[in-house]
Amino acid sequence: MTANFMLVSDDKYTKNLGICTYSVLHNMCPAVEHVRIFVMDCGITEENKAKLRRQAARFDNAELVFHNIEQQLDEVSTQVETHWHKAIYGRLFFPELLAKYDNMARLIYLDCDLLMNQPVTELFEMDLQGKCLAGIADSYSYARKLALGIDMDCTYINSGVLVIDTARWTALNASKNIIAYLNSFPEKLIYPDQDAINAVLAHEILILHPRYNFMWQICQNDIPKMLRSIDHFYYSAEELSEGLQDAAIYHYAGHDMWTIDGLTPVHTDVFRKYRRLCDWRDCRRHFSSIRNGVLWLMIDIKRKLLGIR
Description:
Elements: E1 2-9, H1 14-28, E2 34-41, H2 46-56, E3 62-68, E4 106-110, E5 114-116, H3 122-125, E6 133-135, H4 141-148, E7 161-165, H5 166-171, H6 174-184, H7 192-200, E8 205-207, E9 214-215, H8 216-220, H9 223-229, H10 237-245, E10 249-251, E11 259-260, H11 268-277, E12 286-287, H12 290-305
C-alpha cells in the first residue's frame, strides 16, 4: 500500500514541517510498503528543501514531493482577512497532482503543527460511506454552524487532519467551490479555509474518533469541566478520555511547537521524542516572553497534578 499524505508550508514554518514529516515517516514507513509526502510549497528555500529531502532519505520507502503553488494562492481574494499566511489555502490545490501520481484514491492532509505518534494505516482502509471527507469534530462546532448557516444535523470539523476521497472530491469540484465560497463570503470567515471547507462540504463529512487529531485544548483542561463550557460538543467524556490515553496524532492547533507561548505545556514528551530524532534536533524550544514562561510553568504544574502528559 502507498500511504499518501499532503502538508503545506512556507519557508518560515519549515522547522515545524521538518519535525512533523519526521514523525509521519517514523510511524508510517515500518507499517506500509511506500510513504509519499506531498509538500505544497508556498516559498520554501532550496536550502531547506535539501534538508527535508536528506531527512526523508533516511527512510528507504519514503518519497518527498515538493509542488510549488505560490501563484495559485492568488486565486483567493485579498478581501479574506486573516492573521494566518495565505498558505492555509494550499490544501485546495492538490487535484492537479492526481494525473501525475498513481495510488491516490485516498489522501490524508495534515497541518504542520501536529505530530504523529502511532501509524494510521486504518485511515487509508476505512469506509468513508460515500462521503468526501473525514475529520474530527471541532470544539467550536456549534457556534461556527450558527455563524455560517450550516445545518445543525451536520458537524463542523477541524481541518487539521482530513481524510480525503480524491474521486469524490473531484466529482464535487470541491476545490473550485470552496475557493468561490472564500471569495464570495469573506465577511463570514474567522477560520477561512476551515470555515469554507465545512460550509461547502457540510453533508459530505464523516466524523473520526478524537484520537486522530487530539488537540492541546483537551489536554489543557479537566475534561468534564471542558465539556461543561462547550455547547453541544460532539464527543462524550469517555471518547475524549480514550483519545487522551491513545492519541495517534497530537495537534498543537495554531501554536508554534518550538515557541512556548504559555498556553501549551502539553505533549512535551512527544515533542521531545521527535525533536531528538529529527534533523532539527539542535533547535531548542524557547519561551516567547518571561510572562509566558511563568504561565507555562503554572499550567505545567496543574497538568502534572492531573496526571496529564
